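Throughout this chapter, every protein is written as a compact record of paired, labelled lines. An example of such a record is reproduced below:
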Amino acid sequence: MSVSSAAVNRADTAIVGGGIVGLAHALAAAKRGDKVVLFERDDYAVGASIRNFGMIWSVGQQRGAMYDRGLRSRAVWQEISAKTGLWAAPVGSLHLAHHADEVAVLEEFVDTTEAAREQGTTMISAKDALERSSTAVEDGLLAAMWSPTELNVDPRRAIPAVAEYLVQEYGVDIRFGTTVRGVDMPTVSTTAGDWQVDNLFVCSGNDFETLYPEVFAEAGIVRCKLQMMRTGAQPAGWELGPMLCGGLTLLHYAAFDDCVSRTELAKRMGEQYPFHRENGIHVLLSQTADGRLTIGDSHAYAKTLDPFESEEINKAILDYLGTFATFPNAEITERWVGFYPSLRDGRTELIVNPEPGVTVVNGVGGAGMTLSFGLAQELIPS
């Protein structure tokens, strides 16, 4: 990446954080014509933005504004892909139903969600699901919900590619390895000197302590710890096709919260999978640009969480995956722990203005890849 090393002390808009939230706000500011500088304390993005499935997962978002935001974000991903060649596969998703209560939730969702139906979300037969996905487990499959709106990106490639796009297309000055130490608008103090800016967006992700800690303390934001895995490359030419999930996912995403039939599903899952429910496990399957499969995940919430993996949790994830998906190469070559900020009171994001010209943007939870571009468009309209 060609990033200027010359001292620059003036910008219209500064961004703190080089993850997807920060990149999205840098793009929105650049599109409206701002001179933009972005500060990232690490030498490259290493947080939640590269430790995820790469799912642009509109279908799981809360019905209404969040779903619409996901679709707008999807359009930005497609725009960047068209201009840069970034791998963004429009594979869609299948929610596989191997139990009658899962079918009931999916049917209720489709019947009551006009916006999703307008995008092509529909119930399909087991036969049609198996034609769309050779990975789906046939035994006991009753039906599936097909949604065409989901994109699959490879986060470890996508985040650097978006940063490069900002530099090349819009002249954004990205300063990796630069920490913002303090703010006294219009001055932003960094390890690369002081900067004068009109607007500052603090998109600091998992760092609640460096800038405006009182904002995060008052908001009650916590961290979510998750466990994920990745297989080795699948045989040459093998493709997952639609990204997949099973019934546990219907208890995780807000899209299904209003479904009355969800109560019966939750009751059965609590009895059949108590360990999964206690550890916030639901299971998704996606692919990377080089053919590997990403598997996860679990969820634990607290301000401070231990950094250690539990093999019992990993086994539970893989065991449940086996109930709805099968594929050629199941060898796990990578395991990792991820952390992302989460609001536990129903809010979908934390937007605070702690002083004139400063906006703190955080708390988008596990949907940063899906929602950030759309959120940035709302906060920084062109």
Observations:
- The longest helix spans residues 65-84.
- The mean pLDDT is 96.
- The first strand starts at residue 10 and ends at 16.
- The CA atoms of residues 137 and 322 lie 8 Å apart.
